[in-house]
Amino acid sequence: MNPAGSKHAEAGISVEGIDGLLPQTQCTGCGYPSCREYAEALTGGLVELNRCAPGGAATIDALALALDLAPRPLDPAFGEERPWTVARIEEPACIGCTLCIQACPVDAILGAAKRMHTVIESECTGCELCLDPCPVDCIALAPMSLPKSESSAQANTFLQRWMRGRAPLARRRFRSHQNRLPRLLRARTERRRMKDAAMPGRDADRATKQAVIRAAVKRASHRRRGLRDA
Hints:
By secondary structure, the protein is mainly alpha-helical. It folds into two domains: 3-78, no CATH class; 83-230, Alpha-Beta Plaits, CATH 3.30.70. The chain has eight helices and four strands. The strands form two sheets. A two-stranded antiparallel ribbon has the order 1-4.
C-alpha cells in the first residue's frame, strides 16, 4: 500500500464507504471491472479520484471529501459528464442471440435464445456494455428518467435520487450476477458437451445457426445503410 493508502487506512476509510459514493453503473469506464474494484484502488491510494464519468463532478467532490484529497476535474480520458441514458432494444430487429443478456452486469435484459429480448428500464444503469456485442445493432440509448416518487427534499438532483434509490439495487444485482455467472457458464458448457456427445452431427447444426446469424447481421447492415442513404 502506498503512503496515501496507509493514511486512508489510519483514518478508518473503508472500501465499503468509498464504494457507497460511486453510482454503481458497473460501466468499467474508470478502467476497473467494477465500481467495487475502483473503490478498492481508491482506498489503497492506487488511482486518481477523477475517473467516474457517470458520477461526474458531484461524485468526484464526494470522493475528495471522504479521502481528504483535493477535487480535480473529470479526466477526459475516461469519458465526459453527460445526461444519463437507458438501453432500449428495437425488438422486431432482435435475433435472440443472448449476447446482450450475457454482457449486462446487472441482469437488466430479459429474453432467451431465438426469442426477442427486452430491457427492464427500471434496472438498467446505462452502462452501455450491451451495445458492442449486439451483432445486428438493434440497441439504442434513450434519456433516463426517475419517477417523481424517488425525489425528496434530501434528493433533488438526478444523481442524488439515483444514489438514494437505484444505486443500492444496482450493487445487489451486480453481486448476484457475479455470483451466478460461473455456475451458468459451467452448466452451459456441460449441456453443450452432453448434446455434442448425443448428437454427432451437432457441429453441422451449429454451423447452420452461425450462417443464419451472419445472414441476419448482413440484412441489418443493409437496412442501416439504406436508412443512412435515404
